[in-house]
Amino acid sequence: MKVGILALQGAFHEHERMLQYAASLHEDIEDLETFFVRTPAELMNDGKLLDGMIFPGGESTAMGLVGQATGIWDTLRAYVHESNKPVWGTCAGMILLSERVIGSTATIVGGQSLIGGMDVTVCRNYFGSQVSSFEMDTPPPPPSRGSASIGGGATPFPGVFIRAPAILQAGEQSKGVEVLGRVVATPCRQAAATLKELDARIASGVNVFKAPCMPVVDALDRDKDGVIKVMNEREVSPVDEEKKSEDSTMPIILPGAAACGAREVICVVRSKNLLCTAFHPELTDDVRWHIYFLDMVRESILRKE
Question: pTM of this prediction?
């Protein structure tokens, strides 16, 4: 079994440590090899594609810039969309795998460089800045072949959230999208302002997707210098009829905010060969999600034998 870890930036060393630890506990895995991937050629080993990939937590915008500069981005897109091999994105990696991102700050001109593949709408930095990092209980992984050997079962998983995103909307279960974990959490001030305005625009019938080629949705108005203009309720003007969308390709429904501002958001989702977690399992000593991913890789290998 050969698993690659995208090593452009972020917690790739931590993922390698946890993968090796998970393999040492798994009764059916004895030959795990891990590889740091920085170039298109490193997605191959002995003339074959790696059996699985992890996109680690870190800074998604920086990964996108470096990835485009090194030429690996198109190769990663092909790997995700065409190979059917397991790919796991954690935190920033989840953002890269998402199809739609709500941005609270300006990113790259033309939209953040996403790899896509996971039918979800993600809010970047939903939980706040670096100083707002925290840990909270999250649902444990579903049972898998390797989980029986380590125990833990239904015990909550310690979710480490560092400048973390949240999934606001996932695709249909009938199309293979499976929500594996939800939490109730209050967005940070900046994300709350963005979502409030986005809610208002959606309710008014606006197509919040600015263009098919620009997957980052930024709902707030900005001045000529790019500074966000945050509006309170009394300043929000009615939406002009001509601004309403007549050809929105996808309806978007976000979970409503409670009186305290908290929303139920998705923190783990799987779609066939893709897995996303909003938190950082690699920064804990709990190996269960890494066991679960290795089982995804193992099952993928067995299907092709």
Answer: 0.80
